[in-house]
Design goal:
Layout (H helix, E strand, L loop, with lengths): L4 H10 L25 E7 L7 H14 E13 L4 H16 L12 H5 L3 E11 L2 E10 L5
Parallel strand pairs: 1-2
Antiparallel strand pairs: 2-4, 3-4
Length: 148
């Protein structure tokens, strides 16, 4: 699902070999997302949550929980805060630019996926990729059975 027709066309072409299993859908960004409860065994989201308002991001995660099968996997990648000196400086400058003129940084800013997921999700894989002062956080999680 994406709000961009360009991204929908790219994803449709790239997923053509798996057309029977993978669905690509243009959406408007409103919730609930157009998918049946428990209809997806995998949801992959790359560099989306760093664009979303925190409250809306949590609402999206709740809706993704609804869409996933009980043993389904949520796979996320996002721009993250740095933990090394250069990365911290880059994160601070990036966040400052985002606050003043978000269009200069494509509307995205460093976020913590693990903080967004909180106790509602069980994290199975967590890694951070460090390149050129930028950090990408990658998480694979399943809905926590303790969550209503």
């Amino acid at each position: 699902m994406d709000i961009s027709p360009v991204m929908i066309n790219l994803a449709t072409r790239r997923l053509a070999a798996w057309a029977e299993r993978a669905k690509v859908v243009l959406v408007e960004g409103t919730l609930p997302l157009p998918a049946e409860d428990g209809s997806a065994d995998r949801v992959i989201s790359t560099f989306v949550f760093d664009l979303l308002d925190v409250d809306y991001a949590r609402d999206v995660l709740d809706d993704l929980r609804r869409i996933l099968t009980p043993d389904g996997r949520l796979c996320l990648a996002s721009l993250a805060h740095g933990d090394r000196p250069l990365e911290r400086a880059v994160s601070q400058v990036w966040t400052g630019l985002w606050r003043v003129a978000p269009q200069l940084v494509g509307g995205c800013r460093p976020v913590s996926l693990t903080a967004l997921l909180g106790d509602d999700w069980q994290i199975h894989q967590h890694s951070r990729v460090h390149r050129f002062g930028l950090v990408t956080e990658v998480v694979i999680a399943t809905p926590n059975s303790r969550h209503p």
